[in-house]
Amino acid sequence: MKSYMLGVDIGTTSTKAVLFDLKGNAFQQSSVEYPLNVPEPGAAEQDPKEILEAVKESIRTVMKRSEIDKNALKLISFSAAMHSVIAVDKEGNPLTPSITWADQRSEPYAEKIKKQTGLELYKKTGTPIHPMSPLTNISWIREEKPNIFKQTAKFIGIKEYVFKAFFNEYVVDHSIASATGLLNIYTMEWDAEALEIAGIGPDQLSKLVPTTSQYKGIAPILADEMGISSEVPFIIGANDGCLANLGVDAVMPGEVAITIGTSGAIRTVTDKPVTDEKGRTFCYALTENHWVIGGPVNNGGMVLRWLRDEFCSEEVKIAKEQNQNPYDLITDRIDQVAAGSEGLLFHPYLSGERAPSWNANARGSFFGLAMHHKREHMMRAVLEGINMNIYMVLLALEELIGTPKEVRATGGFAHSAVWRQMVADIFGQEVHVPETVESACLGAAILGLYAMGEIDDLSEVKKMVKTRTINHPDKEKGLVYKELLPIFIRLSRLYEQEYEAVVDFQNQYTNRI
User: Fold this and answer.
1) Of 266, 472, 494, 509, which residue is 20 to 30 A from 145 by alpha carbon distance?
2) Quick one: 182 and 103 in the same domain?
3) Using omega within 30 degrees of 0 as the cis cutoff, is the peptide bond preceding 356 cis?
């Protein structure tokens, strides 16, 4: 009987499940979406029960569509988005929704902790102090929701919620834990200083386990609901960023992965924890010998969507009439403008920013706008701004690892030849696009094989992932970007001085109306 493995990725907007054979070939997949709720300004919440049902439905759908024998499924391995926080009571009932990485309400507490600890806490935990992190969100709950805080037995993430439902145990893998701001990445224990700041004890967090940990014996009623054997091993897995690197074969020294979807990230793998003296990058665990360092950005595809909605009604109308993707028309129009948008720069901080500035108050801006600029210049400047900001994160990485030897592209942007080429030109490097389906799901499946002893090393991924296409940098365009990038970087530092002032004005204006 042929064997299969199932990679499940619990994401911010959907849960995806992909069925692979043991050579990494995808056979069937399913995606179940759920909303991101914004009940008040700055909030970004989800219903954990809804996500649990999405996990079960995605597995059930893949098994049903594939029609494989349930005993042919060798393992189920998990990826999940980082930074989520759910307060639960003694019975395991949620007292809060799942507070996601996009929630900004803990920003004042992040600033307070940052001033209190400087970079010392970051250097121990590998997680920059920012409103995205469970550390700051638990602090916010303690101060702003004291009744809930008093009732809370555990603070958990969304994957912990799912595993508690499946195996009646609170466990958190080292990878998810290393993104909380609460784990000491050198001792692999909950950090005493971080716990004191959050106002909790280690008993209020889940049991720490390696990413390769296996769980068997799911309740038969749950197994039947999902169409799987009750004896199939569940591998707890890791966080989505780490597994995306694994899933695109970017786990060896010098290999860098860029992922741009709604948000984005650039990451590479080291064999030990590495933090940045300036606090610009994260450091998360994959296995005890694989650590993923890099930086996430808030402003990826969501900024392109803003561009579509606010600037590109003409392209949207034509696309609808011709049954085309409006983004194809937008990027075609962008491609007609010269590199550098004739001196127009755009800082893409429409929703604050994580790396490299880690400033929730950051705001977007056009600079250099003149009478000769047209709408098309602004369109191109927006896309260039997204990529220039990610390049700034790469510069921080290069201080830690040197110049990368290969850049691999994943996420929605990898489907756009124009966007990929722009990255190649700005970075001055070849951009390789792997032939893979849902990299985090494949990464989870490969980690599952490693956990089961089916492969000896994660480098086996090289046998499973082939390169689909390569974008080569254009030297002339690269020279244009070399002139503009220093201006872009200097401006981003100058603007830092005024972000707080303009946000104060925006908040006052909102309150007045």
Assistant:
1) 509
2) yes
3) yes
